[in-house]
From TrEMBL, chains A, B:
GO cellular component: cytoplasm
PANTHER family, per the entry: HOMOSERINE O-ACETYLTRANSFERASE (PTHR32268:SF11)
Similarity comment: Belongs to the AB hydrolase superfamily. MetX family.
HAMAP family listed in its UniProt record: MetX_acyltransf (MF_00296)
Site (Important for acyl-CoA specificity) location in chain: 324
Enzyme Commission number, as recorded: 2.3.1.46
Source organism of this protein record: Leeia aquatica
GO biological process assignments: homoserine metabolic process; methionine biosynthetic process
Protein name: Homoserine O-succinyltransferase
Pathway noted in the entry: Amino-acid biosynthesis; L-methionine biosynthesis via de novo pathway; O-succinyl-L-homoserine from L-homoserine: step 1/1
Reaction equations catalysed: L-homoserine + succinyl-CoA = O-succinyl-L-homoserine + CoA
AB hydrolase-1 domain sequence ranges: 50-340
């Protein structure tokens, strides 16, 4: 039930969908036109009933499975989950993965050239919400001729999109698979996001978001944001068993160089991320997390009322060592679903990997996912 | 049993002790001479047996109780705990509070003028350890004519100093009061410290630690470090009940200004701190936390063996919502003490205030402290 089961989707070529119908965003700004880059794995069946949408999290993108080139060292970010014979089985499902609006991997975002000015949008790119993403994903479904998804699937921020689908387009989604997610951020979640944002916003190389024109990138801020993020993705115990107090050298240096291996790991992760990810996209993604709160407009943030429109069946999965979005947060969703007598399977999975567990191989987790997708297939796709 | 019980020590005048005997630090550097600023409350009794040392935590200092001027708005940082009729009762105890070596409140530290150059020590100030602090505190005790402390008391990093006293100078301490502390940092603790340090070290205004000469201060980095620190001092639940998802305005701005009250609170705390605290001292304090690990030199980090030298009695107190130094960490200390058949009282206190609870009024906490100090007094001080 782990990564050794199932094969690869092989080499894939990203595609681009162009949308020329204006999109009104939650913030009030209208985007006149935009592009979304996406990949597909497997074949859409004759009655177009086997399509599965993969929604990405904060730093994700459209390249979820397979390789871009035969000599690629790393496969797509969820290659362990998606492929022939894997839990999301591309021999049965037509899987679509996209880069969200505002992203930095090919979809229209802050680093895209604005055709009206010839310069990147930068600070002029509007903030987008989970609802906006789902609206834009619905238009992608239209272009692909998909009237209804067999399932919309995501972890973390991706799970929020799956949840939003059931409220924005209840007729267009049969199953929502919401992993390691939450119905809204807590004050602590927002606090961590704000520190990460302040690191970027106060980096002298940020230039109010228009750093592209200055030939610089706010790498210091982005690096700090990623280091901090990483701490919240891992569990205290997981970090303890992997790194503990192991030193990099034989003894302490008594200076500010790396002393402990955990420091080396975090700085490496921060440097790597700051080398390829767009800071404006990072800011925008964290804001989408903060704003997500579908229950807000209902009396006292009533999630049950917010989900009363939903018609889907649900798999809600959480990991016991995840302190970013703990199982309690998933149970809030489960309660709101059962309040509405909606079909829901809840899986609380033991793992030492914290929030990151949703990306990792784990026999129990993979068995839950495999069984749930077997069930979707058995319903007739 | 809370702040309304007991009075104030009134106006106090900080004093300065000069040490001209060289101090060899753990890092191998010798400090030829140094000053420590301190305050005292209450009267040393005839047989000099009623002295209590207060050790401060990361951002603390010598001004633990009373006022410096009659019109001061804020009293010392532990004024709720120390005073006539308070748990650490200055009618019975002679209380000494100092600013540690490396501090920025009057004791010799990185911002002190080096008499040899006429400029602040800056990057040339060595890193100090908890052991070094305890050594320097022992010399302060010598100057004050205190052969043995009735108690050494501290929360967090201060608790580590109290613990170290029992190992470095077992004959000179009768009671160690170790609150919200830990026998060593975890990988996660170190990770948070490293992000804070990287924020300061990579601030362009840091200038390798010699920012004084440039007429600037790395406020951006220090502000981020403090914002991050604050998240770890509060509990998720405490933050949730105080701030939740409350907005500052009536609706979302959809920009990077403050949206949520938690953001406003954190940025305010960060700005305030960056306005008065020295960045080099902050770095040095976090390193002292990282290095503290008295069990390290014993087989497989055996804390029981490290504490086999201790002769004191102990009060170990922890707070259930403290996720920085959770009760588990205090229980490790309790176990090592009971392994050595040392007298230990362990109190695990319910509080929503997280790590910061050690500074807050709480009836159960204050009752535990009061009873413990009553017992010390009853032993005859």
């Amino acid at each position: 039930m782990s990564q050794d089961k199932g094969g690869s989707v092989g080499c894939v070529v990203p595609q681009t969908a162009q949308f020329d119908q204006p999109l009104l965003l939650t913030c009030g700004v209208t985007v006149p036109r935009y592009q979304l880059v996406y990949e597909t794995y497997g074949e859409l069946n004759a009655d177009r009933s086997n399509a599965v949408l993969i929604c990405h999290a904060l730093s994700g993108h459209h390249h979820a499975a397979g390789l871009h080139h035969e000599d690629d060292k790393a496969a797509g970010w969820w290659d362990n989950m998606i492929g022939p014979g894997k839990p999301i089985d591309t021999e049965r499902f037509f899987v679509v993965a996209l880069n969200n609006l505002g992203g930095c991997h090919g979809s229209t975002g802050p680093s895209t050239i604005d055709p009206e000015t010839g310069n990147p949008f930068g600070s002029r790119f509007p903030l987008v919400t989970v609802k906006d993403w789902v609206d834009s994903q619905a238009r992608l479904a239209d272009q692909l001729g998909i009237a209804q998804w067999a399932a919309v699937v995501g972890g973390s921020l991706g799970g929020m999109q799956a949840l939003m689908w059931t409220m924005s387009f209840p007729e267009r989604i049969r199953h929502a698979v919401v992993i390691a997610s939450a119905p809204r951020l807590s004050a602590q979640n927002i606090a961590f996001n704000d520190v990460a944002r302040q690191a970027i916003l106060t980096d002298p190389d940020f230039h109010g978001g228009d750093y592209y024109a200055h030939g610089v990138v706010p790498t210091r801020g982005l690096r700090l944001a990623r280091m901090l993020g990483h701490i919240t993705y891992l569990s205290d115990d997981g970090m303890g068993s992997k790194f503990g107090r192991l030193l990099r050298g034989e003894r302490f240096n008594y200076n500010f160089d790396v002393e402990f291996q955990i420091e080396s790991y975090l700085r490496y992760q921060g440097d790597k991320f700051a080398g390829y990810f767009d800071a404006n996209t990072y800011l925008l993604m964290t804001k989408a997390l903060d704003y997500f709160d579908p229950a807000r407009r209902y009396g006292e943030g009533n999630l049950s009322r917010a989900l009363s429109r939903a018609k889907a069946s649900f798999l809600i999965a959480a990991f016991d060592s995840d302190w970013r979005f703990s199982p309690d947060r998933s149970r809030e969703i489960v309660k709101a679903l059962t309040d509405n007598r909606l079909p829901v399977t809840y899986a609380e999975i033991r793992s030492v990997h914290g929030h990151d567990a949703f990306l990792m191989d784990d026999p129990q987790y993979f068995a839950v996912m495999r069984r749930y997708f077997d069930r979707i297939a058995a319903e007739g796709v």
